[in-house]
Design brief:
The complex is a heterodimer of chains A (443) and B (58).
Chain A: E1 7-17, H1 21-32, E2 37-40, E3 52-55, E4 58-61, H2 74-81, E5 89-91, E6 97-101, E7 104-107, H3 113-121, H4 125-140, H5 149-154, H6 160-174, H7 183-192, E8 200-202, H8 207-219, E9 223-225, E10 229-236, E11 239-246, E12 250-260, H9 264-271, H10 278-287, E13 293-300, E14 310-313, E15 320-323, E16 338-344, H11 354-368, E17 378-385, E18 409-411, H12 423-442
Parallel strand pairs in A: 1-2, 1-12, 2-9, 6-14, 12-18
Antiparallel strand pairs in A: 3-4, 5-8, 6-7, 10-11, 11-12, 13-16, 13-17, 14-15, 15-16
Helix pairs in contact in A: 1-2, 1-8, 1-12, 3-4
Chain B: E1 3-5, H1 15-19, E2 25-27, E3 33-35, H2 45-49, E4 55-57
Antiparallel strand pairs in B: 1-4, 2-3
Classes of the chains: A alpha/beta (443), B alpha+beta (58).
Chain lengths: 443, 58
Amino acid sequence: MLWRIHRVKLTTDVAIIGSGIGGLCCAALLANEGYQVTILERLPVCGGRYTSVKYKGFTIPTASWMLLYGKDDPVYQTLSEVGANEIEMRTAGTPMAKYRIGGKIYDWPENGALKYLLSIACEDAEEVSRVMTAIGQAMSQIPSNETTFNDWLLQYSQNEWIHDVFQAQITTWCGMNSNELPAGEFLRTLLSFQGKDEFQIPRNGLKDIIDAFEKSIKDNGGRILNFTTVEEIIVENGQVRGITAQKDSRIELEAKIVISNVGPRKTIELAGTDSFGSEYLNLVSERIKPTVGMDYLFTTNKPLLDFPGTLYTPDTRRKVSWSVPTMMWPEHAQGGKHLLHGFAVPESTLDYDPAVEQEVFMQDLIDVFPDFNEYGGELLLRRNFCGEWPCTRSWQGYDIEQETPIRNLYNVGDGVKPQGWIVGAGAAESGRMVAKRIMEESS
Amino acid sequence: MAIVIKESNCIGCGSCVLFCPEEALTVLASFIAKVDEQLCTECLICLNCCANDALEDT
């Protein structure tokens, strides 16, 4: 039988495995500086967990919802730097958030929000003052990451409600529990919000951001190959040489630099464990563990919240964040329907039963929204972000460096976030750092 | 021929649900994906989408 292997040989300056927001930020900056970049993406669309798709007529995020820091977000900054930042976005306005404490709902004030919320949670003014003073001091002298935030806070307060207010925030920001999150990272995250723009959401969700990145990269001569699965990172004498991939045919891509946006564990798998020393293999094995989250989308006939921001419920069984995205963009639903989004973290992110978590979540749902059934509430989508489709590839504060022991092989994304940068913003910042490093090294 | 969920691998992350062009996949309360064979065209996009190797074409 006659047959032949279809094989395509290509060359590029920079090969990027995966088109998550870290990879796209890195690619856009490098392409804008004249590097030829080639992105290989196994999915039909780019963006990974940082985009939105249409599902049953609704605009649904693949995971991330928003530009966390609005126009100050590293994602938006990157688009600005490459001249691709004409994105129509909206913000929640005032109040940006509300808190439900003891069954009552309170607006997040523009100033003095934390003290205000803690004062509602705890009647003992002295205890609130003690916590606020400790937070203030810790912001200028960041505590060690060796202590969890829960243990750090216990030094100043044993009040359950105070702890719950913080836990609600940690759930949403990090997909973790306060007894898992390093204390230093919580304080750095608090600081990261100071003086920054409010969160913003584009008209078609984060897809608008990803479209802008794709256009910029292609306009600068970059290639984006979807439906393309990378099979191997080729390493010779401690130096990266390229990759092999499978699309319609086998692709052999020679590259001076390879950037992996698929997580440090997968990077090792693709390059082969023999290419790395035991010290690095142990580091990745010990530190890179995904954060998890139970994510729900419901449709309703009327909006279940009266504002477009986030409702935090520290007083529910799991500390849930809720939003009605259609209050900001009615176009995200069809037929006059509304969306309700809920996100919670299991009690332990290392050991949990998703089915049990679902039962708890549904109880919380009815507690917070007793009109849910009356408003025609129906489940649209349930998700358990974990494993290879997690909230983030690494626990906050456990990320490793972007550089690898292999010359010209880097990781970007949410397994290698710099300290104090959370979720998508952290992934983006890692991509920016690697782009800067590459430019510095070649100048 | 049919798309089958490998239950031991499926974690219910829902990525296959969103990328299926026929909207033939759902995540059950057990957080295992399910294929609606009436809607599935076996385009195999879901196999490529799943990062946990939880789908196979039998």
